[in-house]
Amino acid sequence: MPPAHLPIRVLVVDDHPLLIEGIAAVIAGQPDIELVGEASNGIEAIDSYRRLQPDVTLMDLQMPELDGIAAIRAIRDEFPAARIAILTTYQGDVRVLHAIQAGATGYLLKSTLRKSLVDTIRALAMGKTHFPAEIASDLASHLGAEPLSRREVEVLRWIAQGDSNKAIARRLGLTEETIKAHVKNLIAKLNAGNRTHAVAIALRRGIIDMA
Prior knowledge:
Strand order of the largest sheet: 2-1-3-4-5
CATH topology of the largest domain: Rossmann fold
Structural class: alpha/beta
Distance between the termini: 37 Å
CATH architecture of the largest domain: 3-Layer(aba) Sandwich
Strand content: 5-15%
Helix content: 40-55%
Shape: elongated
Number of helices: 10
């Protein structure tokens, strides 16, 4: 937390210049907040953090070179007190969980930036966490649910690409019966009605993406 007479120093990391410009415009109207740096990928984010050591960092999730989760983990490993909020268009309880596990202390949806940007920056600078109510509720609703195994996630990604069980078995060097068992298990864990429904749930929750 910066001294009361100094502005909160903010680093923004995103590969979309227009978004950074929008954030800069909002911050410019706040006498207690100052934008001190910008970065467009995770590697630049780590270098910029080392150089600037801002009070608050806003970090996009999906970026070239190194994604936001990996960048947060690297920064928090080196600077355990870093205050970082994920800046993303994506909701999904699994993405939130991964961000928290990496060390994120806040979560900002790009669709609600104008409403929550300043409050989030101030909250993080004061040592608080900030997760929107709908995201916290989504996360809580899945606590205790059995997670998918790494293999089940892998199978689910191929299902999302339109592959049959036979094709997935060939890709992974497994029997078709083994793939069928994985599909049955992942459908049950996601409480889905079928393969297509399982993919839809996984996309919404952030278990897989179509990138």
